[in-house]
Task: structure prediction
Amino acid sequence: MRASLLQISVNPGETVEERRERVAALVREQSAADLVVLPELWPTGAFAYDLFEEYAEPRNGPTFTALSAAAAGASVWLHGGSVVERLPDGTLYNTSLVIGPDGELRAAYRKIHRFGFDRGEAAMMGGGEAVVTVRLPETTAGLATCYDLRFPEQFRQLTDAGAEVFVLPAGWPARRREHWTLLSRARAVENQAYVLACCTAGTHGGVEQAGHSQIVDPWGEVLAEAGEGEEIITADLDLARVAKTRADFPVLRDRVLGVPGRVG
Result:
């Protein structure tokens, strides 16, 4: 399976409408890939909180419409990053959309762990309540978003649900770039799975973005890594390596669960 990660530059000099059109055009150019991945909240920027209400949209809104046509045009599976989803009751969610080569919505994931420590996203958005996997033609992908990366128990749940590839869009700050690259590799190593970690570039909401999107294999080796600017990285995933790694080094079978705690 060939995966292409589009590290989109999100800057305030480009309107949401212009960026949506530009990104859809980039997706249409990726016909050589099987799976294309976009970053978290690329239409607005993950830290552009002042734009969330204005550009919130239903799940089948303008971003989905543009990406659906682009995925069908390129005949690719597309993880569309995430959008600010608005429910009829006004609740906002950070929602990822997975679109098939036919342009149909195949899965949606609402981000469980919201960043901000009672401010920003954590205060403005509802939290997802379920882990989500999606069956691709050759494998099962587990979905997570940005701050979720810091919570390994979510990835272990996805592994238990059959995930062999984790798809992780993000808008991770440059000042914590080392955490971004380290934790992406850690989630791959501890679950013996591929990690497709796609971050934004540029600066939005006054926050410089980390970039350095990565494709990591089940042994923790980085197959492709972007720099700091807008860039597309691609790698061929040998999906048989997941089962082989888990069989050759069967760490997952040695988990000990339900160990009682003790004080003193």
Q: What stands out?
A: The two ends are 51 Å apart (CA to CA).
